[in-house]
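Good morning,

Attaching, inline, the backbone tokens for the sequence recovery test we're adding to the shared suite. The designed sequence is right after.
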């Protein structure tokens, strides 16, 4: 009888999920006060800074008191390359955390904060989906606790101080033609990519070309996500290179006396945010660099704090494993001394068939041939992750259109490549639908040892680092450099930045730098068009192909569907 009731309940939830949008499910959820969520993992109310009833920041005092506690196990969730068919990386992350909770395990998830750009653009929100979401969903996807506003303000304060220094006599001898610091805004706005500032009278500043990036691509976002404390934050801020002098010498934020004021703006933004999942699993959500144009991971501070709070920490890295996981391993883990214990690689049968050439409108039909052709994308990601020495579990995010023949094919394919496999139904069933995956992850943690190692050594020259990532992770046959990029690389090596890791900016839609090349492209030429150093963050940014650091809005932005009803209820945010 019990089994029949469980099956009936599962069918009802599946039907409910199919009829409701993510925001409707989130708005109907019964949240518990965040002080109770914190209490369940041993955090007293005095260690929280409340932002209403359901959001809080964790105090610096708490973070200091748990530093000596042993770390839990670190699990990274990544995915195949994103497609219009959907993969569900955040949904799996949330569902896995909820499944651990149902199994009586002490688990915390650690996520990035969503950017307003994709929220109003094409991608929508980033709180997970169905019955595996973090809440309050509307707050998270909109202004949340103001972290992004603080980062934007600190970025633009530095820009204002830079232009003011030139206006007030230019004591440092800054060459206006060699200003590299850009303003930022957390919104997709292509009109701001290239602008002219200083128009008007002499009192309005020097006329010069300027640029905007989206806030999640700002170096200050990267610095906030990599800094361990206020002291480290200020040291990193001081190293930011904003321009060069007429003699070619770098000018930093410290030279402009900007560090103290910028740090003051970032004081509260440095504290990790605590919210909950639909099943009340604690979630630290902090920082939000994109993985296609930045380093794609939540803050080191949040991840390290989570490891002291729980026995299991599930975190994610943005976009596919060729971008997010590579940067998690080669940048975040390298800098923070993190050693992941396992990786969950998310895929869907629909996305694999899309990689095999099936149009989006035909993905619900069984097609083993297309699955065979498209699964090479999953195969490449499995191979890439094994290069880091971390055991891999493939999570197949289930759709109702998946057939048993298709599921069996993917399962055998993964197991033949030394990967555990689990079917996850967390979208429709929440933590209940993630227990098979949780069991596989636990078994992997117990029986497969991680031998984590970065892909390349610090002492390797920058060009070799670029070419190592391009060949070993992307599958490129060669790398070409624009003349300007060659000069920039030579200059950075001479300046002493050759030992830094590289942060590759590339399209998320393909393993290559061409978004139209699906599946597993091989032997292609990857084009490097620009290189610059984020000296405060501690990496060298490499722009490839046509990737933009300020996205634009699509023909029909998601903003068209978002509205606020008279009763204060937000609708259309998916």
């Amino acid at each position: 009888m019990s089994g029949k009731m469980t099956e009936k309940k599962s069918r009802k939830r599946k039907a409910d999920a199919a009829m409701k949008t993510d925001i409707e499910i989130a708005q109907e959820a019964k949240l518990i006060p965040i002080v109770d969520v914190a209490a369940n993992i041993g955090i007293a109310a005095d260690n929280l800074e409340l932002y209403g009833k359901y959001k809080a920041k964790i105090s610096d005092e708490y973070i200091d008191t748990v530093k000596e506690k042993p770390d839990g196990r670190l699990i990274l969730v990544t995915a195949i390359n994103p497609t219009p068919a959907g993969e569900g990386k955040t949904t799996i992350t949330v569902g896995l955390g909820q499944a651990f909770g149902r199994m009586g395990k002490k688990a915390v998830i650690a996520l990035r904060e969503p950017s307003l750009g994709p929220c109003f653009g094409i991608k929508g929100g980033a709180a997970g989906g169905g019955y595996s979401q973090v809440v309050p969903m509307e707050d998270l996807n909109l202004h949340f606790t103001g972290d992004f506003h603080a980062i934007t303000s600190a970025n633009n304060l530095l820009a204002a101080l830079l232009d003011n220094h030139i206006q007030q006599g230019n004591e440092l001898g800054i060459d206006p033609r060699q200003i590299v610091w850009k303003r930022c805004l957390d919104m997709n706005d292509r009109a701001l990519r290239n602008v002219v500032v200083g128009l008007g009278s002499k009192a309005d500043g020097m006329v010069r070309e300027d640029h905007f990036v989206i806030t999640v691509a700002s170096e200050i976002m990267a610095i906030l996500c990599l800094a361990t404390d206020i002291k480290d934050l200020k040291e990193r801020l001081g190293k930011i290179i904003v321009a060069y002098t007429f003699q070619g010498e770098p000018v930093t934020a410290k030279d402009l006396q900007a560090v103290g004021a910028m740090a003051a703006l970032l004081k509260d933004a440095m504290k990790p945010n605590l919210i909950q999942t639909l099943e009340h699993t604690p979630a630290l959500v902090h920082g939000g660099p994109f993985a296609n144009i930045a380093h794609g991971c939540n803050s080191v501070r949040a991840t390290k704090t989570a490891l002291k709070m729980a026995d299991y920490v599930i975190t994610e890295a943005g976009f596919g494993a060729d971008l997010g996981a590579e940067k998690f391993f080669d940048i975040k883990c390298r800098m923070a001394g993190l050693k992941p214990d396992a990786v969950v690689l998310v895929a869907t049968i629909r996305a694999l068939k899309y990689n095999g050439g099936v149009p989006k409108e035909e993905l619900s039909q069984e097609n083993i041939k297309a699955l065979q052709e498209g699964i090479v994308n999953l195969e490449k990601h499995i191979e890439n992750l094994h290069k880091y020495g971390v055991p891999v579990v493939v999570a197949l995010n289930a759709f109702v259109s998946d057939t048993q023949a298709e599921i069996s094919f993917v399962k055998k394919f993964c197991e033949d490549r030394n990967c555990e496999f689990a079917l996850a139904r967390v979208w429709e069933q929440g933590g209940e639908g993630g227990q098979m995956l949780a069991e596989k992850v636990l078994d992997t943690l117990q029986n497969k040892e991680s031998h984590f190692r970065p892909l390349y050594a610090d002492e390797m020259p920058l060009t070799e680092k670029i070419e190592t990532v391009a060949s070993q992770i992307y599958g490129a046959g060669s790398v070409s450099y624009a003349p300007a990029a060659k000069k920039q690389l030579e200059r950075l090596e001479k300046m002493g930045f050759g030992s830094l890791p590289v942060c590759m900016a590339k399209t998320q839609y393909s393993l290559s730098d061409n978004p139209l090349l699906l599946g597993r492209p091989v032997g292609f030429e990857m084009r490097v068009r620009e290189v610059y150093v984020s000296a405060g963050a501690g990496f060298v940014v490499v722009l490839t192909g046509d990737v933009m650091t300020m996205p634009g809005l699509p023909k029909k932005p998601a903003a068209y569907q978002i509205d606020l009803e008279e009763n204060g209820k937000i609708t259309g945010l998916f």
